[in-house]
Amino acid sequence: MTTQVKHYIAGEFTTGTGSKVIEVTNPANNSVIAKVNAATEAEVDQAIASAKEAFKTWKEVPVSERARVMLRYQHLLKENHDEIATILAKETGKTFEDAKGDVWRGIEVAEHACNVASLLMGETVENVARNIDTYSYTQPLGVCAGITPFNFPAMIPLWMFPLAIACGNTFILKPSEQDPMTPQRLVELFEEAGAPKGVLQLIHGDKTAVDKLLSDEAIKAISFVGSVGVGQYIYKTGTDNLKRVQAFAGAKNHCVIMPDANKQQVINNMVGASVGAAGQRCMAISVAVFVGEAKEWIPEIKEALAKVRPGLWDDKDAAYGPVISPAAKQRVLSLIEQGKQEGADCVLDGSDFTVEGYESGNWVGPTMFTNVTTEMSIYKEEIFGPVLCCMEADSLDEAITLVNNSPYGNGTSIFTASGGAARKYQHEIEVGQVGINVPIPVPLPFFSFTGWKGSFYGDQHAYGKQAVRFYTETKTITSRWFDEGSVSGPNMSINLK
Ligand code: NAD
Are residues 7 and 68 in the same domain? Predict the structure, then answer.
């Protein structure tokens, strides 16, 4: 039986009237599990109008009441954690453990949104001039929108709407059309948490819906997470239309392995960080740079990767699931083929991997290349599959230059026993998130998710204090109250006297 996915417009769940039907498939065998009617322009208009109307009252709701909605919401997310993770695993193919991680990292942001009152605090200076005080408030922007990718259908929507709404905005979420059931469940629970109708809207669809959000004057800010090309398009179009935009894009993350690192730690961490989640993480380690004698560990990493077995979401022994779609699989396989043709050594080839009984699924086995150079497509392109590229450097300086020459700057890590090497790396590396003996350094929500260079377009990043700045305006007030009978004469200068 296929599920009909619903939009949530003006406080009602609706199948919509759009004639374009998008199929949601189980990536393990490509059977259709759900359908969604892509939103029409009129439906997007309706969502925008409703969010605009709801903003008038929501922005006046006291901050403690807005925080209470978030408190109830994070509680409901925790109560329904496994159920959400099951929906997520079925539509993404992620293993249940991995799906639970996706939900949990989102819950942490919802928890953070409960602190909104402290996060919104402005600044005050008394007596900036005689009897004059200056203080600032942070006020919401209006209607904000979020456009999210397939690879974290719980975490990434939760990076956006809880904080935006806690700040007093209303929000329109346009999640990936490839796995829309998880976001629908997140929205149902938000309604159950007591959010007034209209504060959050959910519209499904593709470019048509996105273009409407990018062009409508009522939308004040756009948060986007997805691929590089689309990220650049969203940033350019949104800012051209005078909107505030934050666009998180693709990545190619390097891990530098020093010869003094703990070998077993390196091997264990490289396996999970490279092929975990089938490599479909924007913070996956896709390039390992071995400095000096560390290259002698390459055969053992290959051996460890060769033992990794993909499988079904509910197979407790499976390390990861299929990639999201036949098109995604085809792209990964074609990059593997290009890697071979361009002269890299494919020491472990997962191109022909399959799972018995699920031969039509989008499986790719763990894959590893050695002798990779910066000119090769497997180095230049984000593969977004379970593929590790191994490179070598003679020194830490050479490794740093290699990483800094990459156009991307989402995440990186170094494995070493030397404080000096780690300090040098963290200081000189031109990447926004650095792990020291931590392979995937995704910051918790009281920090921000701070990708750099081609991995991010904008100024303020996701969650933490930066997200609060992104979703608010600062209003600065300069105020003077007169003592009875002390009215001063005309002031012809701009100085405060
Ligand atoms: P995608 O760019 O294909 O899609 C992202 C969103 O944009 C979806 O909602 C989709 O419907 C919409 N979209 C797609 N094409 C569009 C177009 N032409 N015009 C307007 N909207 C369009 O990305 P994806 O394949 O769903 O996700 C994987 C990508 O996301 C990878 O590149 C990954 O690195 C990146 N990602 C980045 C981060 C980060 O924080 N930097 C986090 C997660 C994923």
Answer: yes
Half-sphere exposure of 234 (CA within 13 A, CB side): 30
**Number of helices (H), then strands (E), in the chain:** 16, 23
* Structural domain harbouring 320: 253-407+411-436
pLDDT band at 489; cut points 50, 70, 90: confident
* Single-letter code of the amino acid located at 317: D
For the chain, the domain total comes to: 2
Helix (H) or strand (E) holding 378: helix 377-380
d(CA 494, CA 479): 15
Name the pTM for this structure.
0.97
Per-residue model confidence as pLDDT tens digits over 439-486: 999 999 999 999 999 999 999 999 999 999 999 999 999 999 987 767
Q: Are residues 223 and 274 in the same domain?
A: no
Which helix (DSSP H) or strand (DSSP E) does residue 133 occupy? strand 132-140
Residues 239 and 384 in one domain: no
Residues in the chain, total = 497
For ligand 1, atom 40: residue with the closest CA: 248
Q: Which of 22, 148, 151, 202 to mutate to test the pocket of ligand 1 (most atoms within 8 A of CB)?
A: 151
Beta bridge partners of 473: 139
- Residue 37 and residue 180: Cα distance in Å, rounded? 11
The answer to the question of residue 101 being in a domain is yes
Q: Using one digit for the tens of pLDDT, what is the confidence trace for 386-437?
A: 999 999 999 999 999 999 999 999 999 999 999 999 999 999 999 999 999 9
Same domain, 236 and 351: no
Judge if 224 and 206 occupy the same domain. Answer: yes
Q: C-alpha distances in angstroms, 243 versus 120, 172, 234, 247?
A: 21, 15, 10, 12
Structural domain contains residue 334: yes
Spatial CB neighbours of 283, under 8 Å, sequence gap ≥ 6:
251, 253, 410, 411, 433, 440, 441, 442
Which of 91, 155, 159, 210 is the best mutation target for the ligand 1 pocket, counting ligand atoms within 8 Å of the beta carbon and taking the most? Answer: 210
Contacts made by residues 325-331, CB under 8 angstroms, sequence distance 24+ = 325/25, 325/27, 325/178, 325/362, 326/30, 326/362, 328/280, 328/362, 328/384, 328/385, 329/362, 329/363, 329/364, 329/385, 331/384, 331/385
